[in-house]
C-alpha cells in the first residue's frame, strides 16, 4: 500500500472553526502547574510558576467580578494591574507548558493560539468580527509571540488594545522582551511608539535555564539512508513520506495556520533529501512546520542532511536566530523520539 504524502493534503479551516479550534495543541492537553518541574539550579523557574499561578487566579477572580457587576450594573468592575503576562526566556525552558497551564486554570470562554494563528484569525474574519468574537473571553493565550513585520505590529497592538479594553486578559510567550520585538527583522525604531504601547500592557516574567529537551541527552541520530527511510515509512501505519524540496514548495502554498491541520493524524513524518533551507522565507516556514510537529509529538525521520543543518550559519547569525535554534531543538527531540521507536530499521 503506498505511503501517504503530506504534499497530497490541502487542509482547509472554515471561518466558524477558527475560534473554536483556538485551544492548546495535543502535547499540552494534560499539562498543569503541578506537572511543571522547575530546574533547581534556576530559581526563576519556580518563581515563574508562582507568578503564572497568581495571574491565572487573578483572571478567575476578575471573570467572576466581571459577570457579577455586569449583571447588577451593566458594566465591568475596574481591575488593578496590567492585563497581560509575558513569559520571556530561551527555548526549551517550559514557557509553553506554563502558558497552557494558565489556560487550563481559567474557566471558559477562553482562547489559545500561536501568534501566526491569531493573525490568520483576524485576516480571515476581519478585524471587527475577530474583536467581537474574542472580546467576551476571559483569556487570550498567545504562544510564540513575535513581530516579523510592521503590519503585524500595528495589527496586534490595535487588537490587544481593543481586547484588553473589553476586559480580556492576555498571556504570551516569546524569546524576545516585548520592547525588543521586531528588532533585527524590520526597522523597529520607526514603530517604536507602537511597540512601547504593546509592551506597556504586559508584566514580564523571566524564565531562565538550559533547554530541557537536551539536558544530559546524547547527540541526535544520524540521518537514514533513502532505503531505510522508505522501509520505516512503510512499516508505520499512518506515516507520511515526502521529498524535502517538494514539501517546502507545498508549505509555500499553504498559510502557516494550516500546518497543524496538515499533520493531524500522522504517526510519523519521513523527509527524503533534507538539506539547508535555500532562503529565509523557506526557513521560516520550516520553523512553523517544526512547531506544529512538536505540538503533536510526531516523530521525524530524515535522509540526506540532519535537522541541525537546516539553517545556514548566516541565518543563525541574523534576526531570526532564536526561532531557528528553537526549531532545531524541537526537531532534534522528535528525531530522538523516532530513533527510540521499534519501527526504525536497524
From TrEMBL:
InterPro entries: ATPase_AFG1-like, P-loop_NTPase. SUPFAM superfamilies: P-loop containing nucleoside triphosphate hydrolases. Keywords: ATP-binding, Cell cycle, Cell division, Nucleotide-binding. It holds the Pfam family AFG1_ATPase. GO terms for biological process: cell division. PANTHER family: AFG1-LIKE ATPASE, ATPASE N2B. This is Cell division protein ZapE. The lineage of its organism: Bacteria, Bacillati, Actinomycetota, Actinomycetes, Pseudonocardiales.
